[in-house]
Amino acid sequence: MDLARSLTFALTSASMVAVARGEFALTTDSNCHCYQTNATQSNYFSHHRFFDFRSLQDHINVPNPIDNWDDSAGAPPTSDYFTNSQFADVWSIQNWSNSELIDLDNSTITDATLQMVNSPNNIYIERDEQQPDNTHLTLRTIRHHDFQSAAEFESVSEKYHFLSMRMEARTQGPPGAVTAMFTYRAPPNPEDTDLVQEADLEFLTRDPPHYVSFTNQPAWNSTSDIPGASHNVTFPGPGRRWSDWAEYRMDWTPGSSTWFVDGELASHITFQAPRDPSQVIFNAWSDGGSWSGRMPKGSTAYLQIRWIEMVYNNTDSHGQHSKQEKQSTCENVCSIDETSKIGTPVLVSAGYRQAVQTALLWSPVLVASLMSLVV
Ligand SMILES: *[C@@H]1O[C@H](CO)[C@@H](O)[C@H](O)[C@H]1NC(C)=O
Ligand SMILES: *[C@@H]1O[C@H](CO)[C@@H](O)[C@H](O)[C@H]1NC(C)=O
Ligand SMILES: *[C@@H]1O[C@H](CO)[C@@H](O)[C@H](O)[C@H]1NC(C)=O
Ligand SMILES: *[C@@H]1O[C@H](CO)[C@@H](O)[C@H](O)[C@H]1NC(C)=O
Ligand SMILES: *[C@@H]1O[C@H](CO)[C@@H](O)[C@H](O)[C@H]1NC(C)=O
Ligand SMILES: *[C@@H]1O[C@H](CO)[C@@H](O)[C@H](O)[C@H]1NC(C)=O
Question: Which residues form a coiled coil (predicted)?
């Protein structure tokens, strides 16, 4: 064995000893060159973002519903939290409506039966009733007398290229609403619905309490459902319901979408997995169509979110890495899974520079390893 190989072996042993102690140090994003998740060994993500809605007491404001269509679209943000750059640089609160798409007599794009408008008034911070010292974000959708108001925020960037995104959330409300976390890439023309790229986590309040839907769109065309695009499954593990708080996770990696609930695998779809850079969207809505159903007049449904976390963008665009390539682009590998503090990464493996430092601290191990090679 030549010296370089011996040294590499010794350094690897040394860093493995450090790791075997089981304690990963909390670190900061500035110290992480890439992130590995505990579900994908071959994909490394280059960026990390964390939005914590749990201690925004200064921003609590549960606004009264606005029963007027124009005022719903024109409503201001409910708190300056949403206009601060930390939020607004990444997310854009929507006020579009389906009135251009909808044709109540005949439409091939949507089977909506209700006019729906997204309102900034339906996105706000409120007290967490189960953790009264804390707050959460709420997305609200309301069935008004003659229209539906909804809530949606979209990423400003349309260029998320693979990701692992998570939220701690729950959904509340009567049948007829959809709440969702998804990636979206619009088709080149709105009519080309077969060219949409989209991976969805959706809760349908018309579903039984322990059902959840996972889809790589398109899930239907003008004549039929597309087999294999959508999985309507029961929650993994017993006793879980969409009305309870849980950690929901979607991993979009080259060639597949995978969903987890509280760390347990819930579904995996390779068919029609999105390929190209996409937006990230959260919403709560209903349009009276066949997917959402119709909420009773005067009723309200909610998507409530305590935090959102994402690692995104592959460290290389093909999603494949040789070990050498990885080491050249990514010295310090971090994890958001192995952490003891949600939102704060831990350093799981340090590159050569840090490995040398580690090895020096572990010089008895280094010496022992070298000796064993010599013998
Ligand atoms: C939507 O919001 C923008 C500001 O973000 C505003 O200029 C526009 O008028 C709103 N649209 C409607 C239909 O009110
Ligand atoms: C509805 O759409 C179908 C298919 O595009 C068309 O054949 C039919 O004439 C339309 N009906 C009305 C009332 O527009
Ligand atoms: C992901 O990476 C691409 C290519 O480097 C870049 O253009 C894009 O802005 C990145 N996406 C985000 C959300 O930063
Ligand atoms: C999912 O399956 C359940 C049980 O069969 C059913 O009640 C529900 O309507 C289904 N939901 C969707 C969206 O297909
Ligand atoms: C709709 O999807 C079905 C199932 O994949 C397929 O057989 C059919 O040809 C598609 N129809 C159209 C109009 O694309
Ligand atoms: C992966 O990490 C998540 C936390 O992000 C955890 O809930 C889950 O149990 C872990 N899965 C495995 C297989 O270690």
Answer: none
